[in-house]
Each structure stands twice: as structure tokens, then as C-alpha cells.
Amino acid sequence: MALIELTGVGRHYRLAGIDVPALEGVDLTIEAGEFVAIMGQSGSGKSTLMNVLGCLDVPTAGHLLIDGRDAGALQPDELAALRRERFGFIFQRYHLLPHMDARANAALPAVYAGVDIKDRRERAEALLERLGLGSRMHHKPNELSGGQQQRVSIARALMNGGQIILADEPTGALDSQSGAELLALLAELHRRGHTIILVTHDAAVAAHARRIIELRDGRIVHDSGAPADHQSAAPGATERGLAGGGWWQRLRAQWREALQSALQALLGNRLRSALSMLGISIGIAAVVSIMALTGAARGSIERDVGAFMQGRILVYRGNPALPPGAVPRPFRPSEVAAVSALPGVRGVTFEREAQMTARHANRDSMVNVLGAEPQTLAMRKLKVVEGRALTDADLGTRAQVALIDDKARNSLFRAGEAVIGRTLMVAPQMQVAGAGAAVPEGVALPVTIVGVVAADGMTDFGSWLGRVFVPHTTFSQKLDLRTDADTFNVLLDNSVPPDEVLKQLTYRLRALHGEEDFGTWSADEEFRKFQQITGALSLLFAGVGAISLFVGGVGVMNIMLVSVSERTREIGIRMAVGARQADVRLQFLVEAVLLCCLGGLAGVMLSWVGSQVLNRVQTSLHVEVSWAALGVAFGVASLVGLIFGTLPARRAAALSPVDALARE
Ligand code: ADP
Ligand code: MG
User: Fold this and answer.
1) Residue 287 has what pLDDT?
2) Do strands 164-168 and 195-200 pair parallel, antiparallel, or not at all (unpaired)?
3) Same domain? 290 vs 410
4) Is residue 255 in a domain?
5) 217 CA distance to ligand 1 middle (Å)
């Protein structure tokens, strides 16, 4: 079976609607191990024929068989595989990738074959060594002479085996000595079993081949035929390229190359990349800022309110809006019961307080005594700074224990005096008898101080009197036997919206009291107020973010289209050495995603700086860029990159290798 067989091959170009026949009715058979020169004048169709032979171009008529397989029936990726595994191209203008050194250029075909990086470097070094470029491994093409560059391209052609070497005017750009060396090299490769197809317009060059085919106006006008002994000793027994690894290794090689070339492209156009990132940066900054701000608002509410405060409404006696002199009434049990019966209310808990006299040793002081519930401290933003808090056991046993705050401590104890374990006498009423001495009326209750509390953080709902907290059970059953409440908690069951319950409750209590001599406070209300603020801000930022991301995405798409058209020749080179369409697509997609992610990083940094500034100038909101925001930022940036990079990447992948190569 012939290595390459053409029957009736034609290749017509259409130029502005005019049919240009570059090849017409070409019948040609080339056996393995031949050294063929294709000759003809400029424009006779030599390059067109070579591109068809090398599966870079698809004929418009006739058939091309490679090893008996019809190349016309192959998919682009199968053609890429053929180029990668069987062919090695040598071009007049070398077609090396300018930003890669000699070794990387030579190794490129093995990347797409999925050869491990260490192995492909070793082989590239061995090939370059053999071609006399041992000391030029790390030179970029522009640091090499024409002859040297052409030898790098030979190394590249041999990288994956290069059973069939296709050379299009390989000496065209070389001085005569380099040209002669190159031809000697081709002859040497022919001796080693490579099939050589050499395209030239120069009869002297063609004379090195064993068979000469002459083209004129796209037709073969002369074929010297193959001499009986033209084949090398062992046709086809050429050195093999390295075997590619499994899918995993191929994937790794593919991704590494894509990342490397993307980075290279971005670094090569720093200013342009930075400018095109701008929109993405602003968009991502907006997204991250939304998250930081809403997070800060939520944190602030949680700090101020406490999660346990959700689902309840606090009703307290007194209202700043009352006319001066008016005495707010406490809540009678029947009134509390009426509230408790409202729809949406799960139950009611009391909290009571009263001014009483406290005595320690010979010191008396007016204090506010509060019947404490388990959540009282947290609700009042207090924390235990000494001793312990009240426990459920204290409440259950109506223990005679108390917590005092700093004010109570200062008024009842000497500075520095230990207070834990001391006993305090509290009396519900008092009468001033005589001058100075205050005598409690009725029975005073001794309570043991178990802890000291202080304001937790900046917020302080402190009273002007010192405070003494006793278990509410102790309070209502041993101290203050009144049945009216000063404060009560309405627990919601979520069957009715909190603001609706609040409305009903206010309405009902106002009716019962005849006036609004009470106040209410609800976490949900607080929450809603916050959400209104943060919601409006979020909406603003989301709008800015979405628009910036869209504009940024279009900018990235634009710059990527420019990048694709600038690097068309590079794409052609990669395809010629066997890159699949997916490889090319990946390369540009990765570049777009990388660009967007870098823009995203800048955006995250922007909002981080913003958050720091915000935290410096104010203290009510603590803004922080979270890891989650970072994750979302990169997610969004990658998505924008994927969406807006797809069109350029597809366009790059859809290029035909021969068109891409021809582009300057
Ligand atoms: P050679 O390599 O022998 O100089 P080519 O194969 O490059 O010749 O070109 C053969 C003919 O096809 C020429 O007339 C050329 O103008 C035409 N041709 C080559 N490439 C294209 C193309 N991409 N579009 C239109 N015409 C082309
Ligand atoms: Mg040509």
C-alpha cells in the first residue's frame, strides 16, 4: 500500500466570487522512504499541494489516501492526530513561536501528544544536541540565525517521529552555506528512513532529491518517477517519537500549555490586559462590597439584637412621647393575658423591675432590682466580669442570689472590696424615719452576690441607678408581690408577620390603657430597618456590578478577539504540529478566564482597601471581605471569562490550519 496516494486532487480557491484553481487533477503516489522534490515556478501550486499532502488543507476535489485511509473522511481532530503523529513540517519562514526558547519550540508537538514535560524536554535536548544546537537550548528564535532557526524547526518536525517530512522552500530564506547544510540534513534523514517531500522552485535544490515532480499551473507536467533504488534501506523504520501518556497526562500537558501560553500572552501585553480588566475589577469590587456590607449589617444586627431576640416583641412601661408629668401605668395580668391571646402570639414572659433599697454593712443605696430571665443579660448587653451568671437552678429554686453592676457595687462597697459571696439586704419599700437613717419597712430579703456584670461592648442600656439582678422567680415570689408587670416579652409563633402582631398588640394595649403610655421594641423591626438600608445599597451595588461585569466582559471579549487575530499564525503553527481544536479553544478560554480572574483579584483588593478605609472612619459597621466573598468573586469572574471568552476561543479553534499559517 502506498504511503500517500492522490487521485484527481483539485484545490480551488474562491476569491471575491472568482474561482481560482490552484491545483487541478493531480494524480500522485508516494511510497514510504522516498525523497521527492516538488518543483515549479512561483504560483504553480507547490505550497497548495504540500498543504494538501500534509493534511493542513482539504482538497476541493479528488481523494487523498494516507496509508489507504481517505483523509477527506476524517474529522478535524483526526487530521490533527495525523499531523501530530506522522508529519513534520519545515517552513520557509521557520514558523517558530517567538516567545518560546529553542527547546520549548522543538518540544511543542510532544505537548499535544501528551508526553510528560520531563521526557519531552529530554528528547528536545537530545534532538537539538544532535542538530548542533546544544548551546542554544534557551535562545529565543530572534536570538538565533536563520540556519539555526531552521534546525530548531527540524528538531520540532522530528519530535513526534516525523515519519513524513514536508519542507516548503526550506532553504529559501537561508544563505547558501546554511542551505547546503540543511539539504545535507534532509538527505541524512532520508537515509534514516524518513520520507522527505521537498518543495522548491530551485532546480539545484531539487537535484538533491531522488524523484522530481514538476508543477505548472496546478498540474503535474513532469514526474521523473522513482528510481528503483531510491528508497532508503529501511523505509518507514524511522525513530519513533515518545509515546504519550494516558488521558490524565494528556490533560495535564494540555492545561499546563494553555496556562503557560495564557500567562505569556497576558504578561506580554500588560497595559492592554490591565485596561481590559478594569470593568471586571469594578464589577467584582461591587459584588464583593455587597457581600461585605450585607455581612457587616447582619453582623451588626446580630451583635445588637442577638439571635434569641428574633421572634419576640418587648413591651415596656413608659413612652418618651408622653406629656411631662404623666405616669405610665404598669401592665395588669388581664392586659397581658389579652396580648397573649392575640393571633400569632405563642406566649408571654414577664420581666419586672422595681426600685428598692439595698444595704450592705452600714451602707444603703437605692437600686433597681430586676427579676432576671435566662436571657436578661444578653438582652441588656451585659456580661459577667466576675463570679458567675444566674443559672436555671437559681431560677428553679428561687435562690436568694444576685448579680450587681458597677454602679451598685460602687454605691454599696468600698473601692477594691471583694463582693462575691457577700450578702446584701434588699427591701421592697422604705420609709425615711427621722433624719438620715433609712429604715426598711417589712421584711428585707438577704441575697448573696454571686457575680458582677458590666456593659458588653459599646452599647449600654444602663440606668442611672445601680442594678441588682435576682432570679425572676425569687423576685416575684419573695420580693415584689405586685401582680402588675413593667415589661413583658411577647413570643411570636410565626403564623402572623411580626409587624402585624406589633400593630395588633399596640392597638389592643392602647385601647386598654386609654393612651400609648408604653413602648415596644422588636428585633424583626430592627432587622427590617437594617434590611431596608442594606437592601437599597445592595440593589445599587448589584446594578453597578452587573453593568460593569457586562461591559467588562464585552471588553474582554473584544481584547480576546484582537488577541486571536494577532496570534492567528501561532494558532496555525500549533495546529500544524498537531494541536486539536479543543487545545486551541482551551488556550484562549483559559486566557479569558485568567484575565477575568486577575481583574477579579484587583476588584477584591479594591473592596478590601475600601473596607479598611470604612472601618477606619466609622465604627458602627465592621466591614470585612470574607473568604466566601473571595470565592464568589472568582466564581463570577471565571463565569464571565467563560461566557465572554467562548466566542473568541471558538473562532480561534475554527480556523483552518493553512489559512492561519498564511496570516502574517
Ligand atoms: P507556489 O507555492 O507554487 O508559489 P501556491 O500554492 O502558493 O503556489 O499558489 C498557487 C495558486 O493559488 C496561486 O495562483 C495563488 O495565487 C493561489 N492561492 C494560494 N493560496 C491562496 C488563497 N489562500 N486564496 C486564494 N488564492 C490562493
Ligand atoms: Mg509556495
Assistant:
1) 85
2) parallel
3) no
4) no
5) 10
